[in-house]
Design the sequence.
């Protein structure tokens, strides 16, 4: 699940968790400001054209910056990789994550639509796009029905991944299917707890279960 500013819940942890902290054609400038001096510490800053091994290192550095919420630094790293390899999956995924974190929903949608064509069975792409469609506050982008379709496909591809069950819960919730949302949220919680018994995000999964349960109870009263 994700957080600010478009979504509420697990936030950047979901996006990075799916890809791994160590982890084209469309690249939009995320920052219009001059490159800060700190960017000089990026790998191969003085190399005019990156080779394959260098792009991998720059991608890893970009995700490290993303994890520290240095969003402009991360964006410039991913954009630099895409100049050398416009189809690089990791850089495209990373840049879409930056877009979400910065509130650039339309740009994120543009990247994910292209990635769905190029990586139709990539559960991380399906999952994160579903999360955005289910949780964005922008009405022209919000699409619970499609979010549910994408989230179900992600779950089929990665049934043991707690992230996809959490996103499935959000998609059901957005679609008003609260009991299904509660069951999916409970599954996400169980999978996370089994993998990380003392995980620092366990309470966030608990909160998701509680929110879905409260919705079920509220509508039971109305019925």
Sequence:
């Amino acid at each position: 699940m994700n957080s600010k500013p478009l979504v509420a819940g697990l936030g950047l942890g979901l996006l990075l968790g799916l890809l791994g902290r160590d982890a084209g054609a469309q690249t939009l400038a995320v920052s219009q400001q001059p490159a800060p001096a700190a960017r000089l510490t990026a790998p191969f800053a003085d190399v005019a054209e990156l080779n394959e091994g260098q792009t991998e290192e720059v991608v890893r550095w970009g995700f490290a910056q993303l994890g520290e919420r240095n969003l402009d630094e991360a964006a410039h790293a991913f954009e630099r990789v895409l100049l050398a390899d416009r189809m690089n999956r990791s850089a495209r995924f990373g840049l879409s994550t930056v877009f979400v974190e910065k509130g650039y929903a339309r740009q994120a949608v543009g990247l994910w639509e292209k990635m769905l064509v190029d990586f139709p069975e990539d559960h991380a792409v399906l999952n994160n796009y579903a999360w955005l469609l289910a949780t964005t506050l922008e009405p022209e982008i919000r699409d619970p029905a499609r979010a549910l379709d994408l989230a179900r496909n992600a779950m089929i591809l990665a049934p043991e991944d707690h992230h996809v069950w959490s996103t499935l819960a959000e998609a059901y919730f957005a679609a008003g299917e609260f009991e299904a949302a509660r069951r999916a949220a409970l599954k996400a919680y169980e999978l996370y707890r089994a993998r990380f018994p003392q995980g620092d995000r366990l309470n966030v999964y608990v909160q998701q279960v509680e929110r879905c349960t409260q919705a079920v109870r509220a509508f039971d009263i109305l019925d």
Confidence is low (pLDDT under 50) at residues 1-40. The two ends are 30 Å apart (CA to CA).
